[in-house]
Amino acid sequence: MKDYAGNQYPAVTTSGQQHLLSEQRLPASGYGGKASPRNAMDGAANFAYHRGMIGFLLKKTFYDLWDNLLRVILVNLGFLISLTIPIFLPGIVLAAVPFVPLSMLVLAAGVLWCGVYLAAAALSFKAVSDYGSFGFADFWANLKAGWKTGLAMGVLVLLLVLMLGVIIPFYLGMESILGFLLAAVIFWTFLLAVVSLQFFLAIRARLDTKLKKVFRKCFVIFFDNPGFAIFCLLHTVVTMALSAFLALLLPGPAGSILFLDEALRLRLLKYDWLEANPDAEPGVKRRYIPWDAILIEEREKTGSRTIKNFIFPWKD
């Protein structure tokens, strides 16, 4: 194949990708035998990141979401049912048994269950990102496979809620410079955790099963790709806000999980390319990742569609 500048290169694939740097390799000679990625791009290189990676990410996520509308709606419906446990059940328990610790225990149990459910959803939608699908049996198997990750996710959510709802107000209530400084530190720690841990379930589904490594890789991904991580978080916030108009059934939490898995899957191609081109100029190769060339095989698999293709796919 050739890229947009006419340079010959080997394809990059993501099949079987299970760790931070895939077993796939590109020749160290890079594009057309030239080490520097500058030679693999045309005059629009500065715009290749947005045009090549982000645009394709949004396109592929939309296609996969459209092709799996029923699955997305069903998973979201299951999550909404699960969400009633931490939202409504504690109040019901407190009214029946006026014992606050029991109500708090029910709340925590509900949050933990929601974490387990979302972990199963992340493991299931990984198949969709990989151009596959899943069924009820797969989702059930993923519940059993991802329960530890789900519990860990639930604990993290409880800690973040504690930070935002209890610890920060406590320090602000001190009405002192020290209290304000401590509240500021906790707040920025909270933001760092949120923007980094958004990839927690996707990394568990795609890279590693050991929770310590999953946790560490969340921060590795963020610090190596801060702009990309912030974009993903903003996309999730906007998606969930728009989902409110459809009662969180579409795209909803399932759509956000699918997007984050798609984002991580494509982003890992960067590390394949970097490892395959060790002789490229360090500063240059980090700044100019040739996404247009790297994603050609992915574009071929995804294809393009017209409005007719979306509405009447059987007429292709």
Which short descriptors sum up this protein?
316 residues, mainly alpha
Short description:
The protein has 316 residues and is mostly helical. It has helices spanning 48-67, 69-96, 100-129, 136-145, 147-172, 177-197, 200-206, 211-224, 226-243, 252-276, 282-287, 291-294, 296-302, 307-311. Helix content is 70%, strand content 0%.
The biggest beta sheet reads: none
Number of DSSP helical runs: 14
Q: Kindly estimate the percentage of residues that lie in beta strands according to DSSP.
A: under 5%
Instruction: Give the fraction of residues assigned to helices.
Output: 55-70%
Annotation, overall tally of beta strands: 0
Distance between the termini: 26 Å
- Uncertain segments are 1-50
Structural class: mainly alpha
Radius of gyration over all CA atoms, rounded: 22 Å
SSE series? HHHHHHHHHHHHHH
The shape, in one word, is: globular
Q: What number is the mean pLDDT?
A: 85
- Return the domain count: 1
Describe the structure.
- The structure is a single chain.
- The protein is mainly α and 316 residues long.
- The chain has one domain (37-303).
- It is 70% helix and 0% strand.
- The protein is built from 14 helices and no strands.
- It has helices at 48-67, 69-96, 100-129, 136-145, 147-172, 177-197, 200-206, 211-224, 226-243, 252-276, 282-287, 291-294, 296-302, 307-311.
- α7 crosses α10.
- The radius of gyration is 22 Å and the shape is globular.
Q: How is the topology of this model organized?
A:
Layout: H1 48-67, H2 69-96, H3 100-129, H4 136-145, H5 147-172, H6 177-197, H7 200-206, H8 211-224, H9 226-243, H10 252-276, H11 282-287, H12 291-294, H13 296-302, H14 307-311
Helix pairs in contact: 1-10, 2-3, 2-10, 3-4, 3-5, 3-7, 3-10, 5-6, 6-8, 7-10, 8-9, 9-10
